[in-house]
Design brief:
The complex is a heterodimer of chains A (447) and B (81).
Chain A: H1 2-6, H2 14-20, E1 25-29, E2 32-35, H3 36-51, E3 57-61, H4 65-78, E4 81-85, H5 94-99, E5 103-105, E6 111-113, E7 126-130, E8 140-144, H6 145-150, E9 164-166, H7 173-184, E10 189-191, H8 197-207, E11 211-214, H9 216-226, E12 237-240, H10 247-256, E13 261-268, E14 272-277, E15 284-285, H11 288-291, E16 297-301, E17 304-308, E18 315-316, E19 331-340, E20 343-349, E21 354-356, E22 359-361, H12 363-371, E23 376-386, E24 390-399, H13 405-419, E25 428-431
Parallel strand pairs in A: 1-10, 3-4, 3-5, 4-7, 9-10, 9-11, 11-12, 12-13, 24-25
Antiparallel strand pairs in A: 1-2, 5-6, 7-8, 8-18, 13-14, 15-20, 16-17, 17-19, 19-20, 21-22, 23-24
Chain B: H1 3-20, H2 43-57, H3 72-80
Classes of the chains: A alpha/beta (447), B mainly alpha (81).
C-alpha cells in the first residue's frame, strides 16, 4: 500500500502498521469520515517532531480518536511515553511536574514545551491513563505499550462492513481497549466528541455499528432510547464491562438484539483485561477458580476476588500504594463475590459498601432489586452518613412512567420488602430526571 | 427555622415514612415519643428524620457526639440551639 511505503523509518511500529494496512476510512468522528491516509500522515509528521524533543513523557487531552491514533503511533515510533488525559490543566499546573511530563500536545497536536528534567522520565514506550475511580482523586496508571498491545486480540474474523461504536472516553482504559481492538482489526470506529446518550444513539442509528462495548448503565439507557428502533441496528457483538453485570440486563439485551453475541468482560485498570464470559449468564463459572482462565489465576479471600494476571499494569505514577496488592503479589480487586452453585457472582465493590448500624448493604444488590420494578428506569444507591445508625441507604431514581411520588414510595417499599432485607430498603428516595455517569460510563457513587 | 417550622418538618418526614409503609398519617404533639409507643416508626425512620432535619437546617447537633432525645419537642429543641 502506498501509504506504508511513504512512511519514514522513524515512524515504524505495530500501530503504524495497523493504521497503514487499514481501509480507506478508519473511522467516523462526529459524522465526518476519518481518512486513514490523513491519520498516517499526522502520525509521521508528529513522530518527526517528537524525535528531536528531550522530553520522554508527552501529554495529550483530546476526545478525537484520529489524534489519539496519530499520537499513539508517534510515541511508539519514537519511544516516548504518552499520557492521555480526560481534562486539561494550565501549563503552570503542578501536575505536569508531578507526572514528569515535558511536553503537552494541544487539540491540534501542536506541542507546548514545559521545563522538565528528562532524566526523571525513562523507560520503555508506555501509555498512561487516569483510573476512573467512581469516587476520589484520579490516579495515573502506567501501561507498557508492548503489554497493552500484546493483549489486544483483533476481531476473530473481521468482515468488510464491521463497525465499532465508541461509547467510552477514548482516554479511559475501556476506551483504549476498544480503540486498539478496532485499529488492529482494521475496523472503522464510530466516535462522538462527547459520550452523551443522545449523540451516541444518533450516531448508532446513522452509522449502524456491528459491535458495541459499554457499561450496563449505558446499555439500560440505550435500550430505552432506541425503543423499537433497536431492530435497525445490525449488532453482532455486544460487550458489557466496567460495572457488575446482572442477569436482568443480559436478558433484556437478548430480547432487544436476538441475533447478537453477548459477552461481559472483567477488567480493571490495575489488573488489565482479565477474562470474558460468553454464556449469557451473570458472574463466571466457579471451576475457573481452580483452573484459571486465559492465563489469569483467580481466588477468593474474605469474600473479595483476587487475581494474578500476566497482563497487569506496571505501576502508578507517583506514590504507588501497596494497598491493592496482597503480600504474595496477587491483586486485590475490591470486588465482593459469592459462590452460588456453579457460578461466582459479583456482589459489588467493597468501597461502596454501606454500613447501616453494623449491617452491610451492597448498593448493587439494592439497585438490582429496584430495577426489577417496571416503573423504575435507572437507580443509583449510596450511603449517607447518619449520627444515629452510621449510614442510611439513599437512592436516586429515574422513573420510567409518570407516577405520583407517594404512590411510587409506597410501591417501592412494598415490593422491596418482599425481595430484600428491611435495613437494605432505601429510606431516602430522590426522584431525579437523570443519573450522572463519569467519563467511563459508570454511575458515580459519591453521595 | 423556628420551633414551629421544625415541628412541622418533623411531622412531614414522619408522615412520609408512614405513607411509604402504607400506614395512615398522624398528627404529632410536642410530647409525642418517637420510639416506644406513640408513632409506628423504627430506628431507621428516626435516622431519616435526623438526616432530613440536618438538610433543612444545615445544622448537625450530633457533630460532637450523640445527644439524647425522646420526644418531638426535644428533637426540635436540639436544632434551635
Amino acid at each position: 500500500m502506498s501509504v506504508a511505503q511513504a512512511a519514514p523509518p522513524s515512524a515504524a511500529g505495530k500501530i503504524r502498521d495497523w493504521i497503514a494496512s487499514g481501509e480507506m476510512v478508519s473511522g467516523i468522528q462526529d459524522g465526518e469520515p476519518i481518512r486513514t491516509e490523513a491519520v498516517a500522515e499526522r502520525a509521521d509528521e508528529l513522530a518527526a517532531r517528537l524525535q528531536s524533543l528531550p522530553a520522554g513523557r508527552i501529554a495529550l487531552a483530546t476526545q478525537r480518536v484520529d489524534h489519539i491514533f496519530a499520537a499513539l503511533s508517534a510515541c511508539e515510533a519514537t519511544g516516548k511515553q504518552l499520557l492521555l488525559l480526560r481534562e486539561t490543566f494550565p501549563l503552570d499546573h503542578p501536575n505536569w511536574q508531578a507526572w514528569g511530563v515535558g511536553c503537552v500536545l494541544d487539540d491540534d497536536l501542536r506541542e507546548q514545551l514545559l521545563p522538565c528534567d528528562p532524566s526523571a522520565e525513562s523507560g520503555p514506550p508506555a501509555v498512561m491513563l487516569m483510573t476512573s475511580g467512581t469516587t476520589g482523586t484520579p490516579k495515573v496508571a502506567l501501561h507498557d505499550l508492548d503489554r497493552l498491545l500484546g493483549r489486544i486480540r483483533p476481531s476473530s474474523a473481521p468482515a468488510m462492513d464491521d463497525r465499532w461504536l465508541l461509547t467510552y472516553h477514548p482516554a479511559s482504559f475501556a476506551g483504549m481497549q476498544v480503540l486498539l481492538t478496532a485499529l488492529s482489526s482494521r475496523t472503522p470506529l464510530i466516535a462522538t466528541s462527547r459520550q452523551t446518550m443522545s449523540l451516541l444513539t444518533d450516531a448508532a442509528l446513522q452509522n449502524r455499528p456491528t459491535h458495541i462495548s459499554a457499561t450496563p448503565t449505558f446499555w439500560r439507557s440505550f435500550i430505552l432510547a432506541l425503543g423499537a428502533r433497536s431492530e435497525e441496528l445490525p449488532l453482532q457483538q455486544i460487550t458489557l464491562g466496567g460495572e457488575a453485570v446482572d442477569q436482568g440486563i443480559l436478558d433484556q439485551l437478548r430480547t432487544a438484539f436476538p441475533a447478537a453475541r453477548i459477552s461481559h468482560i472483567y477488567a480493571s485498570t490495575e489488573a488489565g483485561a482479565l477474562f470474558a464470559v460468553k454464556d449469557g449468564r451473570a458472574g463466571f463459572p466457579a471451576p475457573w477458580l481452580a483452573e484459571g482462565i486465559d492465563g489469569v489465576q483467580l481466588r477468593i479471600r474474605d469474600e473479595i476476588l483476587e487475581v494474578l494476571s500476566p497482563r497487569a499494569m506496571r505501576s502508578y505514577l507517583a506514590a504507588a500504594s501497596g494497598k491493592n496488592t496482597a503480600e504474595d503479589g496477587w491483586i486485590v480487586t475490591g470486588d465482593l463475590v459469592e459462590i452460588v452453585e456453579d457460578r461466582v457472582l459479583f456482589r459489588g465493590r467493597l468501597d461502596d459498601l454501606i454500613n447501616v448500624g453494623g449491617a452491610k448493604v451492597l448498593p448493587e444488590q439494592v439497585e438490582s432489586a429496584l430495577l426489577k420494578l417496571p416503573f423504575i428506569r435507572e437507580a443509583r444507591v449510596y450511603g449517607i452518613p447518619n449520627p444515629l445508625v452510621g449510614a442510611l441507604v439513599a437512592a436516586d431514581l429515574v422513573l420510567a412512567e409518570s407516577k405520583p411520588e407517594d404512590e411510587a414510595r409506597r410501591e417501592i417499599h412494598q415490593q422491596l420488602s418482599t425481595t430484600i432485607e428491611p435495613y437494605k430498603i432505601p429510606r431516602i428516595l430522590n426522584f431525579v430526571s437523570t443519573i450522572p455517569t463519569n467519563a467511563t460510563g459508570k454511575k458515580t457513587r459519591a453521595a | 427555622m423556628n420551633y414551629d417550622e421544625l415541628r412541622s418538618q418533623i411531622e412531614t418526614t414522619v408522615n412520609r415514612q408512614l405513607t411509604q409503609k402504607g400506614l395512615a398519617p398522624v398528627k404529632l404533639e410536642e410530647s409525642s415519643r418517637f420510639l416506644g409507643g406513640d408513632i409506628s416508626i423504627d430506628s431507621l425512620d428516626l435516622a431519616v428524620i435526623v438526616t432530613e432535619l440536618q438538610r433543612a437546617t444545615n445544622k448537625d447537633p450530633f457533630k460532637d457526639g450523640f445527644k439524647n432525645f425522646r420526644t418531638v419537642g426535644e428533637l426540635a429543641q436540639l436544632y434551635l440551639e
